[in-house]
């Protein structure tokens, strides 16, 4: 009897230990590890998920096979307290595993995943506003460790808090042989086309996870691009069957959805993948919507045929349309058309390459950024100087990042709600918050004088504003000495009661910031 | 026996005569008239339609009650030859009427209804291109006969071939009493709110039909606006129930769909009708799609909340967004977003009224038209000089119509396919047909010299172009004396092989037309 009690106690301890887990911080990753050796291909025919609940909320993320007889289920808890789980699988050895863990307060700098805020803007789950200032480093995750470290270091000292990056490298000879050759591909097999699309290569994805984690640590969103059209008949990752595409999408979600700094970009330049229709993309969007338990941001990046961003599963517009940022006011229109956040996610790149998409001067890039933010939208930078950064990361050498940092400072110190166009049917270049804050951008105009005149919304006679002249290129902010008390001019506008104007330096790239002080 | 044969012959003749109809021209209106006195409200509970077939095509338009014991079914045959019909009704006296008529060739000037052509453009059913040049005369159909006659006369001598017009007048005191008071309202009853929404007033609709016919005779499309938000709590035609809205829509279709010059505009400034959601509009669109047998053009005109023009039942965009025509390139973007024809259907009005939507100078209106057509889209004019034209029709006194006529001449003598943007991601102000025809608009820029440089698409070395300088305001076209032979500059562009530029007058509103001659 005593023996039996001792044995029972030992077994109980084992049971506890087996299911005992370290606490996980809020929006951190809980990872359940299960060993199992089902017969046949471990990627095929084995369903695995786990249901997590704290009594109020319930989530059921899918698990994935991580190689070497190990299956994993990842979960990102969004509420502190005790969570229990139970696995569900069609393979007995993976089914019915139960346990619990405690979710504790988030560590410093962990604000959770990003959500939409005020229709056109974003905030982290803890309500801290998130103003995207993106950059593009498509292939950085496939470079040497040293290069990756350098990229992270550069990003850390840059204004950029979102990185557009490919989940799968584009075809490139250098990735097949030589010093840059890849050790791992997403599928088992060998390049160029000897792939087993029924077997993922977990090591490839683990390396990608490391990159996402590194971005997370420096507060950068990984705008992770699932598909891309860049194999040109070689590797064939862009000509897989719809079934393989779906499998890949679900595997990516199972591995990455628990990372709080993930956004899903379904594809880069999607219509260049000729065999996939908009209905195919609808389906893949629905897969992401269904299997990502946390509702990370979802969009798709167009080529010639623009996907219909008004579809309900698209959280924000991720547009490639260079001319949309060359004139003011277009981002405001796009907001009104879609009633979603607008990301001008490819606006050409600062650079000096022979292709015209990579020939912007730093001032033109800066100008396009200002046009975008004044339109109440967000832009994404890229650099193609000597062919660098855009593909491989490394160092930034352009002149626009410093100006983008300056703009970011202005945006982040502006209205907490985010910049919204003011009177967007009649004003092309004015954003802010009616009655409180006005940012007016003159772009390439050589304005010498601006007669104070503001759209009437939320204004009252007697309100007093201070004005600052912002040189967006030289990054200076100069307070105008006199202030401006408003009087009504007509049904539509208020002017300074003394008829004062503001003198401007008569050169391009100037802006004004008017802030109400009384 | 003889008697019986004679009687049979007489009856047979009667049968033929009873169903004998005059021939109807192709795209004209066949109207079947039936007398019946069903018990109760003749508008309610009586279903009536007729199925028309020529053996190959079959159409089943709904009929309508036209007052005085008369029901009608209208049909627009689109194929020459013999058509037979048979009525279907839940009232015996209207059911099972059969007959036939012959459809003959269309008369001169009858090109049939308008269809979409080449995704972004229009043509009549006989393939004659239709390039919309619209104007706005919301309330013209509710004015005196004399005024209406004047409006038709003005239109006849104007560049305008599409008129945006309300099917129901907005509330106005002058329509209730005084010399302008209306003799008829769409419903039985008396203003302001004593309406029987179960009884239409056929006389009101007959007068509207006369207006549509008058427009047809001078080749003008009636862009007929079914609903409008302008009753301000008075008449209540904008606060009817969804059932009444549907009934009204079906009655309008039954009466007007057989007119070949009809377009359906579901509503003007639709979101100002606060109680109707986008789903309500979806439903009304579907009603139009279902009951209009001919697929006339369908759109809706927005206020603040922009209806999703990508929905499948919307044939073209009918946008109100003033800033979209103040900068070049936006119409091209809208084409790429929607892949439908873009009509900039409210771009502010030439005028001098106190409201800012009616304060455009003639040159600004002309500028907005050019921006639109260079973007591969179509615009709609309006005039608010001394409050005239826009509401009541009458005379045009502005300075833009002559310039719009000039533009129309250029557009109609341009590529038969319609103007399409050339290289719309990189060029903001160039339309035409690659390799053949280029229209370049400089807007408000004071260009003195334009170095010949064209995007490479469809160009080859050695091609020769002639150039004309177009003064869009002074309406002159000046041939440049020398021609330009092209050579390749780089991956993207061709230039004149001698490096020639074109000298321009250094003032606003200039354009260039380059036409290939060799």
UniProtKB/TrEMBL annotation, chains A, B:
> Which ranges carry the DUF5605 domain?
428-515
Outline the extent of the DUF5060 domain. 24-90
Residues in Apiosidase-like catalytic domain copies: 120-377
InterPro entries assigned? Apiosidase-like_cat_dom, DUF5060, DUF5605, GH, Ig-like_fold
The family database entries (Pfam families) matched by this protein are listed as: Apiosidase, DUF5060, DUF5605
Alphabetized PANTHER family for the sequence: DUF4038 DOMAIN-CONTAINING PROTEIN, LMO1036 PROTEIN
Q: What is this protein called?
A: DUF5060 domain-containing protein
Organism the protein comes from:
Gaoshiqia sediminis
């Amino acid at each position: 009897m005593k023996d039996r009690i001792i044995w029972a106690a030992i077994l109980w301890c084992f049971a506890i230990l087996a299911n005992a887990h370290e606490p996980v911080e809020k929006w951190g990753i809980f990872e359940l590890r299960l060993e199992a050796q089902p017969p046949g291909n471990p990627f095929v025919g084995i369903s695995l998920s786990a249901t997590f609940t704290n009594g109020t909320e319930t989530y059921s993320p899918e698990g994935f096979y991580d190689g070497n007889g190990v299956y994993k289920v990842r979960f990102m808890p969004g509420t502190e307290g005790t969570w229990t789980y139970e696995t569900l699988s069609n393979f007995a050895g993976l089914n019915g595993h139960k346990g619990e863990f405690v979710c504790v307060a988030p560590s410093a700098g962990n604000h959770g995943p990003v959500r939409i805020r005020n229709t056109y803007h974003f905030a982290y789950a803890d309500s801290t506003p998130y103003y995207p200032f993106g950059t593009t480093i498509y292939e950085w995750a496939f470079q040497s460790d040293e290069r990756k470290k350098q990229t992270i270091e550069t990003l850390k000292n840059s204004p950029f808090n979102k990185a557009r990056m490919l989940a799968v490298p584009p075809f490139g000879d250098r990735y097949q042989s030589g010093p840059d050759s890849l050790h791992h591909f997403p599928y088992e097999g060998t390049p160029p086309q000897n792939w087993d699309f029924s077997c993922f290569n977990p090591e490839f994805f683990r390396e990608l996870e490391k990159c996402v984690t590194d971005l997370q640590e420096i507060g950068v969103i990984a705008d992770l691009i699932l598909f891309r059209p860049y194999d040109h008949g070689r590797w064939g990752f862009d000509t897989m069957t719809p079934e393989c595409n779906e499998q890949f999408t679900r595997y990516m979600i199972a591995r990455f959805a628990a990372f709080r700094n993930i956004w899903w970009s379904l594809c880069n330049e999607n219509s260049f993948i000729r065999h996939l229709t908009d209905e195919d993309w609808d389906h893949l969007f629905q897969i992401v919507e269904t299997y990502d338990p946390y509702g990370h941001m979802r969009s798709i990046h167009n080529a010639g045929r623009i996907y219909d961003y008004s579809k309900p599963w698209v959280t924000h517009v991720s547009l490639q349309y260079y001319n949309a940022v060359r004139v003011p006011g277009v981002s405001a229109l796009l907001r009104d058309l879609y009633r979603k956040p607008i990301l001008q996610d490819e606006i050409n790149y600062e650079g000096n390459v022979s292709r015209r998409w990579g020939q912007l001067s730093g001032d033109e890039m800066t100008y396009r950024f200002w046009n975008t933010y004044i339109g109440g939208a967000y832009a994404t930078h890229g650099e193609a100087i000597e062919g660098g950064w855009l593909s491989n990361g490394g160092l930034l050498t352009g002149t626009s990042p410093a100006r983008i940092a300056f703009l970011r400072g202005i945006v982040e110190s502006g209205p907490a709600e985010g910049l919204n166009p003011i009177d967007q049917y009649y004003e092309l270049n004015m954003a802010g918050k009616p009655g409180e804050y006005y940012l007016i951008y003159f772009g390439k105009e050589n304005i010498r004088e601006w007669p104070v005149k503001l759209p009437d919304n939320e204004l009252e006679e007697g309100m007093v504003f201070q004005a600052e002249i912002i040189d967006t290129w030289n990054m200076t902010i100069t307070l105008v000495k006199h202030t401006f008390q408003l009087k009504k001019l007509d049904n539509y506008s208020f002017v300074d009661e003394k008829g004062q104007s503001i003198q401007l330096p008569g050169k391009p790239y100037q802006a004004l910031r008017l802030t109400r002080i009384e």
